[in-house]
What does this fold into?
Amino acid sequence: MLRGKFGPTVTSQGKRSGWDTISQTINASFPLVVRTGDDCEKRWYVLQSKAKDEIAAHKRESSLTGGGPPAKRLSQVADTVFQVLGHSEVSVTGLPTGIDTSMMQALEMQQR
It folds into this structure.
């Protein structure tokens, strides 16, 4: 719902309700800092943007030829965003619904 395109079943009210539910869950777990649905939504998009930048940099480093140290591992936040969005959502080049095979190979090598 939160990432879906607007339509008959995905409305701005539904998305707002989803973010409010997330903020209530976070506030119940961490009551010292109260967050609104808007705060949570903004934070998610900031994290997502930074993670996509990190994934793109990791992809560039992984595709370099020659010697040298291996590419740094993705941070836990970037890896989590990658897992949430899926392979097709973090592609920074090519078709928007395509799978970035070089990124998948880099992640598989990282896991080994």
The radius of gyration is 17 Å. Confidence is low (pLDDT under 50) at residues 92-100. The first helix runs from residue 12 to 29. The helical segments are 12-29, 37-62, 76-85, 101-111.
